[in-house]
Amino acid sequence: MEASDFDDFYAASFRRVTGQVYAMIGDLDEATECTQEAFARAWAHRRKLDKAEYPEAWVRTTAYRLAVSRWRRRKRGERAPDRALQDVRAAAAVDESHVALVAALKQLPEAQRQALVLHHIADLPVHQVAAEVGVPEGTIKARLSRGRTALAALLADESGLAGGGVTHA
Amino acid sequence: MPEQQHDPIEELSRFGAGLSTGPGGGEMPLSAADVRRRGDRIRRRRTALVTGAAALAVAAVTVPVLALSQGDAKRDDTLVANDPALSVRDLLADADTELQVGRTGAFRTSETTQGDGQATVQVCQQQKLASLGASNSITRRYRYVPEVVAGETPPDVVGDGLVETVAQFASPDSARSAYDRFGAWLRDCPKPVADATDARVIPARAADVPDGSEAHIYDIQWKDATGEPTIGEVGLLLQDERIAIVAVTVYGASDYNYLPEDGGSPLDRMLPKAAERLRPGGAAAPAPAPSATVTDPVDAPAGTELPDDLPLADGWPEIDGDGSLEGPARDQEPFSFAPCGTDVPDAPEPADRITARWQEPEDFRGRQLSSYTSAAEARRAADAIVNAYRACPDGPRDDAGYVSHHTVADGDLGDESWVLGRSSTFDGAPAPGLDVTYVVRVGNTLLLITGAGEGGGSDPAGDILTTASAMADESTALLTSLCRFAGSTCAG
Fold this sequence. Notes:
Chain A is mostly helical and 169 residues long. Chain A has eight helices and no strands.
């Protein structure tokens, strides 16, 4: 992948991937930072990326994994988040209606939330979600079914949203 | 019905559509060029990744009783094993080191010193170990051997890699006191390196070490002068009357690297081995077999006719449209060397020879295998080349203003080996372009592995080591076959 190709890829995919990661983790600043780091790693591993069938999926998976890893580490050690990248400005707030949706998503189990985001937000077919997550298609279908039901209940019950705002995942 | 008011699929889809058509995902904090620059740093740091000692140590001016490569491990032991309490066998061997999961032997010993010397050694150390009651201590520095991707420019290597100090005390209480004191120094460490910013020490975590030992790992995070995030891991290990301090610094690493589910941090993996080494009696644990143990060549049982099926061109990248592969064949032009403009004679005359060359516009690789009537003859052929390099550290300035420089270092392949490097400077500054030759004697054969490329522009010494390491990795199959053919015990 040449620099110009990467720049086009970054410009076309950054917001989308950031939004998807945000939906998965519920923290826009963290999603922005992890996505940025994932793109940097994508450039560092561009030979590998050239061979990837879906480069955006590679970046998304990397960003999500980074975010989860950071969250786990902070949870385990109560560490302050490291700022690997400089100049991460406060990300612009997303549409207000999306805040409630993301807050509801945060109430779901991680696996259900991931399946919902990949299938309904990233618009991936079930088999591709299964491939990206690394579980059988049947498992994804079950997670989608349970996730949709749970999400509907959470959206219906505004009081079910913890604080109604976005906190660190 | 609440569900009728909030269709989750519709909400999710709307969110997804907003990401594609609107500002949904938020702003891009960095430009694509900035992200690429960050990626380039990651790549360089990922493969170079480390300095430990150089960044962390406080100019240890110690007496280098030992400055040995891995291949000298036996001499290493002989010199220090007279001390019944502590020996170099209590230190991590090269094969014990592991930076990335599963890649053992990531570091090579660069220097082993005894005693405190004139300065403290470890990061945040405020007093010499002798001041804490240590009756003896040994410190070993290791340099990182970065992973090199075939066909790519070797990464930068910054300084040394890893440093371990082991110390002996008069009693367990004394060792415990020193262990606690060191921990306090680390907890209160204000600045791990002079130009660090945003430094902070993460509360220590207990390390998983064998029974009878106690260990804690301290993570110190900071940003270097360029703003690059850096993690310095320091492991403290207590075992009866001994302590060990192991420190590694990882540039370009953030707090999401080295998670337990990924195999843990370098010290998570190396401290248990350090504990085994430090354990009284653990010194008897087998050290990794030195790969260069033959000091007086002896005649090998092998014949002089080289097998046709030796994989002389194995491990090289595929040739693309602009490249060429010549050989392996017996009718190839032999390699020639002329440091300082003086041709090195091709003597003694080989009994048999096979040569292969791989060439692309900016890279060259070559291998030449020669057999001789005896191991001593093979050694003489090696000496002719090695001594010519030694005799010419700096060549004359050529017509274009470039000055060639030649270096010789011990290698760790075959029965004995040397790494020859040639780099150049222009107006005193390193200039791109270097070539490296690994001279490897195996029994009565001499293998020359050579490579040339555009490295050397910023760190010639590091590039030479990196190139040599990459060439060695590429030649694994050949060396294994050669050791077998020559009847040598070398591992290849």
